[in-house]
UniProtKB/TrEMBL annotation:
Organism of derivation: Parapedobacter luteus
Database matches in Pfam families: Sigma70_r2, Sigma70_r4_2
Signal peptide stretch: none
Listed name of the protein: RNA polymerase sigma-70 factor, ECF subfamily
Any one GO molecular-function label of the UniProt entry: DNA binding
């Protein structure tokens, strides 16, 4: 393709992009449902940053946050002709990312990256999105459940979660082996897992209702 032809194509594309950029969300959605890729690109640019900020505030991971937002937009494009929006397009996208983030957070809660299925760091991230009173109730519930553990396990768990001490630091402080501390944390995690799953759904409830 000759340089002049390439320039002409690029200029036409830029003109179309500018035209779509002046559209309302409702107009963009109509174009997207008819398969206009540039309208979708404008929508993506319009909302990507704020959706990413929300996802990062909860997940505290650039890669996980980007993946969550990207998956929402990919699904949106693939299902564009099936989507029915009853509120606003912005609200629809935000709720989709909320659900995706909660799913990602739930997987993290089950993983080995935290000593507890729900860490205080994760709770602090959720605090930016939910009512402080609701979060305080969740934290109080967690603390009450921790108090039901055998005293030795509860002590180790609180040192890990509340004081943010490593396994080695707890072992030195208590004069126990690191393996003993690991075993106690594993036992605590198993005892707390069911409650913390319920707490994740409670967070979901307070975020959306």
């Amino acid at each position: 393709m000759a340089p002049s032809t390439v320039y002409q194509v690029d200029e036409e594309k830029n003109m179309q992009t500018r035209r779509y950029a002046g559209c309302s969300d409702e107009q963009l959605m109509a174009y997207i449902q008819r398969g206009h890729e540039q309208a979708f690109e404008v929508l993506y640019d319009r909302y990507w940053h704020e959706l990413y900020r929300f996802a990062w505030n909860v997940l505290r991971s650039e890669a996980d946050a980007k993946d969550a937002v990207q998956e929402v937009f990919v699904s949106f494009w693939m299902r564009r002709d099936q989507i029915e929006i009853t509120t606003t397009l912005a609200a629809y996208l935000h709720k989709a990312v909320h659900y995706k983030v909660l799913n990602s957070a739930s997987r993290l809660l089950e993983g080995s990256r935290t000593h507890l299925p729900l860490s205080y760091e994760m709770a602090n991230a959720f605090a930016m999105q939910i009512d402080p009173i609701a979060l305080k109730e969740l934290e109080d519930t967690l603390s009450r459940q921790m108090a039901k553990l055998p005293p030795a396990i509860e002590n180790v768990l609180r040192m890990s979660v509340e004081e943010q001490l490593s396994t080695a630091e707890i072992a030195r402080h208590l004069g126990l082996s690191e393996q003993t501390i690991k075993n106690q944390l594993t036992a605590a995690r198993k005892r707390m897992r069911i409650l913390c799953r319920d707490m994740v759904f409670s967070v979901l409830f307070f975020m959306f209702f």
